[in-house]
Structures are given as C-alpha cells and as structure tokens.
Specification:
The protein contains eleven helices and ten strands. The protein has 272 residues and is α/β, with parallel strands linked by helices. The chain folds into three domains: 112 residues, Cobalt-precorrin-4 Transmethylase, domain 1 (3-Layer(aba) Sandwich); 106 residues, Methyltransferase, Cobalt-precorrin-4 Transmethylase, Domain 2 (2-Layer Sandwich), CATH 3.30.950; 41 residues, no CATH class. A five-stranded parallel sheet has the order 3-2-4-1-5, with helices on both faces. It has a five-stranded mixed sheet with strand order 6-7-10-8-9, with helices on both faces. Helix 6 links the parallel strand 6 and strand 7.
Length: 272
C-alpha cells in the first residue's frame, strides 16, 4: 500500500496522530530529502516517545529523479507499507507525489492521502480576502517573458491567487507588482507557523517599505482577485503569440483583462 503523508510546514506540534502512526509503521519511506525525514523521525522519537519499526528503508525521491524512479517501479514494490513524505507540507503541492498517485491508480494499488498542514490554505485563510474562489499559481518562472506573462495571467485570473516566491526574488516580485498593479491589495506571510511568522497586508509599495529589505525566510503571496473576471476562452499568451502589430495586441489584451490600452501597449514595447 502507498500512503502520502504531510508533515509540519514549521511547527512540529502541527503533525497529526495519523501522520505519526503512518511514519512509524512504514517499511519504506520515500523522501524528498532523506536527511530531513530522518531528522523529523528523531524529533518524534525524542519528543513524543514514538516507537518506529526497526530497519526502515529510506529512499530519496525528489523532482529530479521522480520520473526515472517511477519508470523502474514494479507493482509488487507496494506489497510492503510504502510512505511518501515531502520535506514540509502536503505532498503533491509544489512537491512530488502526484505521479506516485497516478502510478497507483494505473496499477490498481491501494493508496491513501492523509490531510495535514498546507501553506497554501493557511495563507489563503489568513489573507482575509473575501473572494473565496481561489487559484494556486505556485512559483512564477524565474525571469524573462515567461515570468512577465505568468505574472500578468495571475493578476488577471479573476480569483484570489496564491503564489510562492523565494526570498532572493521577493524584492523583484514586489517591484514587478508596483509596475503592473500598483493599487492591487496583496497579503504576504513569512515563515508560516514558525517562531518568526509575520503577516503583511497592503499594496506592493506599502509592503516593500514594511519589510525593510529583510527578505530571509519562506514566503507565500496572496493576490486580491482582480475586479473583472477573465472568462475569455483566449488568453494573453495566445494573443502574444499572434503575428500582429503591438497596438492590435494591446487592444485585444485590454479587452480580456480590463487593463488600460495605453499602459498595455507600453508594457508590450518593454517585452521587445
């Protein structure tokens, strides 16, 4: 059997009794990072006096080797009690896990997914945005046109949108928001559930001033829903790929996003 087990995103006290039980009874633990999982198990033994199976097998399974590992799997591997655990949070949310579930479905393998700590939902609730239809965007591309296009799509999704951002790109991200959506309200959470957890709320410019260049830590960004839902069947990416003059593209993008045509045209000139 396969079990996907969430782990605390910061505070060890958030681990569930079911998660402890699943970890302690596992024959093999597939780990995003075996060192992190072994440290967690050590803490559980010391703090909660938990007994674990002897001779548990630890296997590294992360985004770089996931496909190769699963391609070599045989269904009888799951005759033992197999647990997949990511470093923090819910497996399958910006972490491996979904491909294992798909393998189990395709090979009639029993599997279970335990509920638990999740940064996306925690930040969403903490944001206070009342648009309850939400969209998880994950990480933006690191740079270039793909990043700009992805950010604009997130801004104009029509839903409260959650983005992960790394500390060394957070300042860049906030400056991008100041340029593209200066009046948009956003919520930032830093180090969720940890000792130095902090919340920030306001426009990107206001938050940039509040942070005072202290970008260290893990960040979750929640964008307030855009005022106009983008329900068009055609996306900005579709328009950008068309062989049309930039002025025409600007008009089309303006139609589906509500963005000012002149501002849209200026932005497209900057992408050249």
């Amino acid at each position: 059997m396969l079990s996907l087990v969430p782990t605390p995103i910061g505070n060890i006290g958030d681990i569930s009794l079911r998660a402890i039980e699943a970890l302690s009874e596992a024959d093999t633990l597939l780990c995003e990072d075996t060192r992190v999982t072994k440290k967690l198990i050590h803490i559980l033994k010391e703090r909660y006096n938990t007994n674990f199976k002897e001779n548990q097998h630890f296997i590294s399974l992360h985004s770089h080797n996931e496909k190769t590992f699963i391609d070599k799997l045989e269904p009888n591997f799951f005759e033992d009690n197999i647990v997949y655990v990511s470093d923090a949070g819910m497996p399958g949310i910006s972490d491996p896990g979904q491909a294992l579930v798909k393998y189990a479905q395709e090979n009639s393998i029993d599997y279970d997914v335990l509920p638990g700590a999740n940064a996306v939902l925690t930040a969403f609730v903490a944001s206070g945005f009342i648009e309850t239809q939400m969209l998880f965007w994950g990480f933006l591309p690191h740079k270039g046109k793909d990043r700009v296009s992805s950010l604009l799509s997130a801004l104009n999704s029509g839903f409260t949108t959650i983005i992960y951002e790394s500390p060394h790109r957070l300042e860049k991200f906030l400056n991008e928001l100041i340029k593209e959506a200066p009046l948009r309200k956003i919520f930032l959470s830093k180090e969720l559930t940890k000792k130095y957890q902090k919340y920030f709320f306001g426009t990107a410019k206001e938050i940039l001033e509040q942070i005072s260049a202290n970008y260290r830590g893990e960040w979750v960004v929640v964008l307030e829903a855009s005022s106009k839902h983008n329900l068009s069947a055609i996306s900005q990416n579709d328009i950008l790929e068309l062989d049309l003059p930039k002025k025409t593209k600007a008009k089309l993008i303006s139609k589906i996003t509500g963005e000012n045509t002149k501002e849209c045209y200026k932005r497209l000139l900057g992408l050249a």
